[in-house]
Design a protein that fits this description.
By secondary structure, this protein is α+β, with helices and mostly antiparallel strands. It contains 7 helices and 16 strands. A hairpin with a 7-residue loop joins strand 6 and strand 7. It starts with a helix and ends with a helix. The mean pLDDT is 95. It binds 6-O-phosphono-beta-D-fructofuranose. The site of 6-O-phosphono-beta-D-fructofuranose (F6P) has 12 residues, from helix 4.
Length: 287
């Protein structure tokens, strides 16, 4: 059953990749539910995922960053719910940087504890897909078929620092943490696309990606269902950790992301993804 969902996501990826190679990146007059301006390709990618996924018996409903509500199927006997961000990083697509799609597959309910598989697609120099279940499998598309390149596994400690958010709004605790990593020899890697930035960390064996509470956005920016939960699941399965908070981390403290409960499907949360060593440094810095 789960296999049919992965297959549908792979087919969607090939279609979206084709569109990205040929389309212009014009904005529409519309904004999505969170107020982001929509590109034509955001809407097209959303429709492709919806069409492929809602066609499956196994799927009861879907939820997208581009839709205001959950879309349920009539009279479905399926148990799976799929949440997706159809085109993440659309603000950098016009610079021809890599962008991606992110998905999470939930059993019966859209909550972190019900996540049973997740992954993402990278539209880069080549088309790649990562799927986390018991472990984290990395595929690329040859033009004819998806080839498995093996598992992604994080080292205990990495070398990359990917700090998100506007620096002038960072807290002092956060500034000290980020600076301490650079002083320790970590190198800056940040494109502004969650998929390529986290994919780089996973491919290079680890480091830290952070999108903290800031004074202008105490709840962070990245969306729980479409971005944060799927990547938390992937990082844990790859041997790393993911921590965050509901609300401002400076008041709430940091917890395991997959233990957090959200109140609404478009909720965002501050988050940290990394190898075990870097996450222990985050915990210490935010204590
Ligand atoms: O969700 C949108 C997004 O583009 C992510 O892909 C990315 O990690 C983040 O925003 C970048 O935000 P900022 O430019 O504020 O660092």
């Amino acid at each position: 059953m789960l296999y049919s969902i992965i297959d549908a996501l792979q087919q969607s990826a090939v279609c979206i990749n084709d569109i990205l190679k040929k389309c212009n990146f014009d904005y529409l007059d519309s904004v999505n539910i969170t107020g982001d301006s929509q590109l034509g390709v955001d809407v097209e990618a959303n429709n492709i995922f919806k069409e492929f996924l809602l066609d499956l018996d196994a799927v009861r409903g879907v939820c997208s960053e581009e839709e205001s509500d959950i879309v349920y199927k009539q009279d479905s006997s399926g148990v799976y719910l799929v949440a997706f961000d159809p085109l993440d990083g659309s603000s950098i697509v016009s610079s021809n940087l890599s962008v991606g799609s992110i998905f999470g597959i939930y059993n019966k309910e859209f909550s972190a504890k019900n996540l049973i598989a997740s992954g993402y697609i990278v539209y880069g120099p080549r088309l790649e897909m990562v799927v986390a279940q018991d472990n984290v499998n990395h595929y690329f598309y040859s033009g004819e078929e998806w080839k498995n390149m093996g598992s992604l596994i994080l080292n205990n400690k990495g070398k990359i620092n990917s700090p998100g958010g506007t620096q002038k709004y960072w807290s002092t605790k956060h500034k000290i943490l980020i600076e301490s990593l650079f002083l320790d020899g970590y190198r800056l890697r940040y494109s502004g696309g969650m998929v390529p930035d986290l994919h780089n960390l996973l491919c290079k064996g680890g480091g830290l990606f952070s999108y903290p509470s800031t004074s202008d956005a105490p709840n962070g920016k990245l969306r729980a269902l479409f971005e944060v939960f799927p990547f938390a699941f992937i990082f844990e399965k790859a041997g790393g950790e993911a921590i965050g908070s509901i609300g401002d981390s400076l008041h709430e403290g940091l917890s395991r992301i997959l233990d957090l409960n959200i109140d609404s499907i478009h909720q965002s949360l501050p988050c940290f993804f990394g190898s075990k060593d870097e996450i222990s440094k985050v915990k210490l810095a935010y204590k």
